[in-house]
């Protein structure tokens, strides 16, 4: 893919714009990709742990579940 360099921002072409149904479709598509990448949401609120090791283990478990979900979805 070629790279085009511009000396000034004024020389750059305007970005493509979408309206109406096309805009809605693009937003839904972006939200769908975000849902795949975001995966599981972390537990809401404050979590208390008895030790730093317990907190780290919970963080690693959440990371492991999120990665497995991403692999499963795609």
- CA radius of gyration: 21 Å
Assign a percent range to the helix content. Answer: 55-70%
Low-confidence region ranges: none
Q: Specify the structural class.
A: mainly alpha
How many strands in all? 0
Principal-axes geometry comes out as elongated
Number of helices: 2
Proportion of beta-strand residues: under 5%
Succession of helices and strands: HH
Q: How far is the N terminus from the C terminus?
A: 26 Å
| Major beta sheet summary | none
Mean pLDDT: 86
Explain this structure to me?
The chain is 55% helix and 0% strand. It has two helices and no strands. It is elongated, with a radius of gyration of 21 Å. The protein starts with 19 loop residues before the first helix and ends with a helix. The relative contact order is 0.10.
Per-chain topology:
Blueprint lengths: L19 H19 L13 H22 L1
Summarize the structure.
The chain contains two helices and no strands.
Task: List descriptors.
single chain, 74 residues, mainly alpha, 2 helices, 0% strand, elongated
């Amino acid at each position: 893919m070629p790279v085009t360099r511009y000396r000034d921002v004024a020389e750059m072409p305007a970005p493509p714009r979408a309206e109406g149904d096309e805009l809605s479709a693009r937003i839904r598509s972006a939200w769908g990709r975000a849902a795949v990448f975001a995966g599981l949401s972390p537990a809401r609120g404050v979590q208390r742990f008895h030790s730093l090791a317990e907190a780290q283990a919970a963080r690693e478990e959440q990371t492991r579940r999120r990665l497995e979900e991403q692999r499963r979805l795609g």
